[in-house]
From TrEMBL:
This is NADH-quinone oxidoreductase subunit F/NADP-reducing hydrogenase subunit HndC. InterPro entries: NADH-UbQ_OxRdtase_51kDa_CS, Nuo51_FMN-bd, Nuo51_FMN-bd_sf, Nuop51_4Fe4S-bd, Nuop51_4Fe4S-bd_sf, Thioredoxin-like_sf. One of its GO terms (molecular function) is 4 iron, 4 sulfur cluster binding. It comes from Thermodesulfitimonas autotrophica. Belongs to the complex I 51 kDa subunit family.
Length: 551
């Protein structure tokens, strides 16, 4: 019998929609029919993360042979030629779009070679519905270390020394956040995983939850131990049914193995996690709105203080962390703070997961060390701009982010550097724009989203975004007036400074950054009634009833 193989068939949302479940069943049947006892067939999370439009994808380990566009009718050939005779099927291998050469192993694909996978470390490498796969990959080793060898204070100190900052967008130091909650005296505390991913085009959290749910559960449990909580919640969008399903499976498995519940691992620590499905409102990503939603109230923010660490869920001290933040915690405890702090830039440690999209050759999830330059991400990993066109700008941070012009391509992607150029990290959205992109239209598109998602509680956000959107729409229709730019700036600054929550405080960023870097385009629309971009493409707007087609 030859080498033992494991065939991982991608079973994330994109590949499932293209028929990967049929491919998985075809492999199971064919391996059995050919009597290959040395081959295991498993589902996995996404191993493509940038090649999802070429799915369903299959990886054969331990070789790492990468097949794309696999159909059930291809399976007999893969099983007989590759798994039985050791000859990979060339016609299904990845072909480099620049050189045209075939690349058999996915680690050799340019898209992956310059990535650094910490948060996505298990995605595509384990079956997310089997806890034994996670344990074999080192899972729950950090929980045992934390509970049996460290005090809560030592866990917090380790996270502080690692430099881990919140991956939900604000970048607040995680260790300090845990310390605040730890120091509040209360018989009951809560810790919540914020999995309310609402940015257009962002699917980082969904991918982690679908591919590696135990990493989030382990991180949340360690966090609960650190702050002194006995109950945790995962607030996840109901629009993510596969993530919800796998989280439920993972929670049941963790309880059965003794990683959740009473006296975990004999440590005396008791902790359990419950799921709360959200209805899909962007504002519920804000901490106080999220808490209100869990309490079955309307998801609207409230003024702070008191902060959630003082009075959160049910008035008790509450800590809220993002999916990617919590997925980072186990590997930090396992490998040590110094290891994690050795990755990234001076003030932004570790890695960041970006949803690379727009006018780019290789779109998808990218994980790189903090401080990696925009040009490295766009050209070396993303493959550059398609059709020989030039880069014009990059929008980072999702609908609340800013547009960075192509003339500063070496901008490091970290919290401080992006803030200096008028943008934000946000949750990790990154939209690439080519020379034919109308920047006024881009500002209008992103503002349409935040305007539609405003909860309407505070006047600056409710009315300010509406006024800005009306002006931007008028400009893009060739009806702009002298003074419109100054009015936009005045309203944008007012909304930014006086809104109640982060949605209102950041939603003017696309308007402010495009005026700052591309004011000449606004002037051309208003004074010359023309768009300098050759392709005046109207983007679909977000309305309160969903996506509205351009007029």
């Amino acid at each position: 019998m030859g080498e033992a193989y494991t065939v991982f068939v991608c079973a994330e949302t994109p590949c499932l929609s293209m028929g990967s479940e049929d491919v998985y069943r075809a492999f199971e049947a064919e391996v059995k029919r050919q009597g290959l006892s040395n081959v295991a067939v498993e589902i996995s999370g996404c191993h493509g993360h940038g090649l999802c439009n070429h799915g369903p994808s299959v990886v054969v380990e331990p070789e790492g042979i990468f097949y794309l566009g696999v159909r059930p009718e291809d399976v007999p050939e893969i099983v007989s030629a590759h798994l039985r005779d050791g000859r990979p099927v060339e016609r299904l291998l990845y072909r480099d779009p620049k050189s045209g050469r075939l690349i058999a192993r996915y680690h050799d694909v340019d898209f992956y070679r310059k990535q650094c996978r910490v948060i996505l470390r298990n995605c595509g490498r384990i079956n997310p519905e089997k806890i034994d796969h996670y344990i074999a990959a080192g899972g729950y080793r950090a929980l045992a270390k934390a509970l049996l060898k460290m005090t809560p204070e030592q866990v917090i100190e380790e996270i502080k020394r690692s430099g881990l900052r919140g991956r939900g967008g604000a970048g607040f130091p995680t260790g300090r956040k845990w310390e605040f909650a730890r120091n509040v005296c209360s018989p009951e505390k809560f810790i919540i995983c914020n999995a309310d991913e609402g940015d257009p085009g962002a699917f980082m959290d969904r991918s982690v939850l679908e591919a590696d749910p135990h990493a989030v559960i382990e991180g949340l449990t360690i966090g609960g131990y650190a702050i002194g909580a006995t109950t945790g919640f995962i607030y996840v969008r109901a629009e993510y049914p596969l993530a919800v399903k796998r989280l439920r499976i993972a929670l049941d498995q963790a309880r059965a193995k003794g990683f959740l519940g009473k006296n975990i691992l004999g440590s005396g620590f008791t902790f359990d996690i419950y799921l709360k499905e959200g209805a899909g409102a962007f504002v519920c990503g804000e901490e106080t709105a999220l808490i209100a939603s869990i309490e079955s109230q309307r998801g609207m923010p409230r003024p702070r203080p008191p902060y959630p660490a003082q009075a959160g869920l049910a008035g008790k001290p509450t800590t809220i962390n993002n999916v990617k933040t919590l997925a980072s915690v186990p590997i930090i405890i396992d490998r040590g703070a110094a290891w994690f702090a050795g990755i990234g830039s001076e003030k932004s440690k570790g890695t960041t997961v970006l949803a690379l999209s727009g006018k780019i050759v290789n779109a998808g999830l990218v994980e790189v060390p903090m401080g990696t330059s925009l040009s490295t991400i766009i050209y070396d990993i993303g493959g550059g701009i398609p059709d020989g066109k030039r880069l014009k700008a990059v929008q980072t941070g999702g609908p609340s982010g800013g547009c960075i012009p192509a003339r500063i391509p070496d901008t490091p992607v970290d919290f401080e550097s992006l803030a200096m150029v008028g943008s934000i990290m946000g949750s990790g959205g990154m939209v690439v724009m080519d020379e034919e992109t109308c920047m006024v239209e881009v500002a209008r598109y992103f503002l349409s989203f935040t305007q539609a998602e405003s909860c309407g509680k505070c006047v600056p956000c409710r009315l300010g975004t509406k006024q800005m959107l009306e002006i931007l729409t008028r400009i893009t229709e060739g009806k702009g007036q002298e003074g419109d730019v100054e009015t936009l700036l005045k309203i944008a600054r007012t909304v930014k400074e006086t809104s109640l929550c982060g949605l209102g405080q950041t939603c003017p960023n696309p308007v402010l950054s495009t005026i700052h870097y591309f004011r000449d385009e606004y002037e051309a629309h208003i004074k010359e009634k023309r768009c300098p971009a050759s392709n005046w493409e109207r983007l679909p707007l977000k309305s309160r009833r969903g996506v509205r087609a351009p007029r």
